[in-house]
């Protein structure tokens, strides 16, 4: 067992919370260390609230002062004051009293950090992300059988069983002949979704705990973490986390990188990339990855969000209601026409309306696209963040809420997403290859005076039923839901006018 000291409890400490690749976070950390003598300085991961970072947390016992994006000189003064035995409260943006041994970020009474519940996100910004002593499970806790009983629904477009019970894939992998393997799919080229990156930056060992638990459950001796090739700092950070905990886990994942392309993040396309295929395209199913995955082996493919939920279920099994349709919480990145994006955590009793409290919008709210680039367009955020509620509302489940202002044109917003689908699909299936082109062309025709609402809707139904790839299946969703909400805008465009005065033929 590796000897770890951790940062929980103990003497006064200054935490500097920032993204892995944040130069300013490095400068703040250096300034704090230069001024420190007895005070400990630790660089933690991001909290998910980029507006506040680098966030400096000055803690002594059960009292923490929060300082949003301070200057290096201010940080040096804070450390000096903490050295004298006093938490510098006078200039703090927030002061929180808490249990001295808490392993979760204390929450101020107001501000973006108070949005939702920080359960899975709890360690982010508070623990040393590379030290298992702060937040890793013990070997006796790492029994995925209890997590299987919790009924966790898989999360994210990169998950091979997204919106289905994760344990179903584990059982298939256990029952299939061959040597199982576990894959963490983090290759997301679309910057709208930041939850997986936040988890791997702020609490990577929580994800690794989930990986090890699932690996033990299915009998896997191999695991892979699949990241985007452009995120070199995150790759290095994850490798450090694996090295820090490899002696304490049953499996130490390999870290590999895939191309910075949207299609490369689809689960079976990710397997093709890892096998060295010349073309990036999804596989036909069945068989599922759990039956025939990486190099033909039974493969469990989850996102970090799913693995982190598994770890939470193992640590606090009584906190999950196994009878609920979607046990656990949902991580949601709030982006769009906002000053700074934020990642928050919502439980099933909260609605998406809460996401507006985490950010400051640029302009007045007009609509939201919920679920990523191919999410659904809506004006109503009174929707619970569960898979069933989101699907019933015609929205996506990929943990993204784009808040769009009244400067946005609904037709152009839908059209750009259709064009993206026509450019990014793999070309393997006809609905994905030709359907996305037809969809884009029908939207171009609106600017030329022809709005064929029934034809667009029928094309969308055919694509959703018959596409082999996620892009072909989901590309019609932003278009059809935008028509449901803003059909008068579509008709006015066909008459040659954009109500917003911001749009011209540009698809």
Automatic annotation (TrEMBL):
One GO MF term attached to the UniProt entry = 4 iron, 4 sulfur cluster binding
Listed SUPFAM superfamilies: Nqo1 FMN-binding domain-like, Nqo1 middle domain-like, Nqo1C-terminal domain-like
Entry-linked Gene3D superfamilies = 3.10.20.600, NADH-ubiquinone oxidoreductase 51kDa subunit (3.40.50.11540), NADH-ubiquinone oxidoreductase 51kDa subunit, iron-sulphur binding domain (1.20.1440.230)
Q: Which UniProt keywords apply?
A: 4Fe-4S, Iron, Iron-sulfur, Metal-binding
Q: Is Transit peptide a UniProt keyword of this protein? A: no
NADH-ubiquinone oxidoreductase 51kDa subunit iron-sulphur binding domain location, by residue?
Answer: 411-456
Quote the InterPro entries the UniProt record gives: Nuo51_FMN-bd, Nuo51_FMN-bd_sf, Nuop51_4Fe4S-bd, Nuop51_4Fe4S-bd_sf
- Say which family it is in: Belongs to the complex I 51 kDa subunit family.
Protein name per its UniProtKB record:
NADH dehydrogenase FAD-containing subunit
């Amino acid at each position: 067992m590796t000897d770890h000291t951790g940062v929980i409890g103990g003497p006064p400490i200054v935490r500097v919370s920032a993204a892995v690749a944040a130069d300013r976070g490095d400068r703040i950390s250096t300034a704090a260390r230069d001024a420190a003598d007895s005070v400990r300085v630790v660089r933690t991961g991001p909290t998910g609230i980029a507006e506040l970072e680098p966030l400096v947390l000055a803690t002594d016992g059960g009292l923490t002062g929060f300082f949003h994006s301070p200057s290096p000189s201010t940080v040096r003064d804070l450390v000096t004051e903490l050295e004298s035995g006093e938490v510098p409260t006078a200039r703090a943006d927030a002061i929180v009293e808490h249990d001295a041994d808490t392993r979760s970020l204390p929450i101020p009474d107001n501000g973006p950090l108070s949005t939702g519940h920080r359960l899975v996100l709890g360690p982010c910004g508070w623990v040393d992300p590379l030290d298992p002593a702060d937040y890793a499970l013990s070997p006796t806790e790492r029994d995925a059988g209890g997590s299987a009983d919790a009924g966790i629904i898989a999360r994210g477009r990169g998950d091979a069983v997204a919106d289905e019970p994760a344990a179903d894939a584990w059982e298939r992998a256990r029952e299939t002949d061959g040597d199982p393997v576990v894959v963490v799919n983090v290759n997301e080229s679309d910057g709208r979704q930041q939850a997986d990156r936040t988890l791997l930056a702020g609490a990577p060992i929580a994800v690794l705990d989930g990986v090890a638990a699932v690996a033990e459950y299915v009998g896997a001796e191999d695991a892979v973490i699949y990241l985007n090739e452009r995120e070199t700092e995150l790759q290095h950070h994850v490798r450090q986390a694996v090295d820090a905990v490899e002696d304490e886990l049953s499996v130490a994942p390999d870290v590999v990188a895939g191309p910075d392309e949207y299609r490369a993040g689809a689960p079976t396309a990710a397997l093709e990339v890892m096998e060295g295929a010349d073309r990036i395209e999804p596989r036909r199913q069945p068989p599922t990855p759990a039956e025939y995955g990486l190099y033909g082996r039974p493969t469990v493919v989850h996102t970090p969000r799913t693995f982190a939920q598994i770890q939470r279920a193992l640590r606090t099994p009584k906190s999950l209601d196994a009878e609920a349709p979607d046990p656990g919480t949902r991580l949601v990145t709030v982006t769009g026409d906002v000053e700074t994006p934020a990642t928050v955590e919502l439980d099933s009793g909260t609605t998406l309306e809460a996401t507006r409290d985490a950010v400051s919008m640029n302009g007045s709210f007009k609509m939201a696209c919920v679920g990523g680039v191919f999410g659904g367009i809506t004006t109503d955020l009174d929707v619970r963040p569960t898979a069933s509620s989101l699907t019933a509302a015609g929205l996506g489940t990929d943990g993204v809420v784009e808040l769009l202002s009244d400067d946005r044109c609904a037709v152009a917003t839908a059209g750009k997403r259709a064009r993206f689908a026509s450019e990014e699909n793999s070309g393997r299936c006809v609905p994905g290859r030709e359907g996305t082109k037809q969809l884009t062309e029908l939207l171009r025709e609106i600017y030329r005076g022809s709005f064929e609402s029934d034809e667009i809707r029928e094309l969308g139904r055919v694509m959703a039923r018959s596409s082999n790839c996620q892009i072909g299946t989901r590309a019609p969703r932003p278009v059809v839901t935008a028509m449901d909400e803003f059909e008068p805008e579509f008709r006015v465009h066909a008459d040659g006018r954009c109500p917003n005065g911001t749009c011209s033929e540009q698809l």
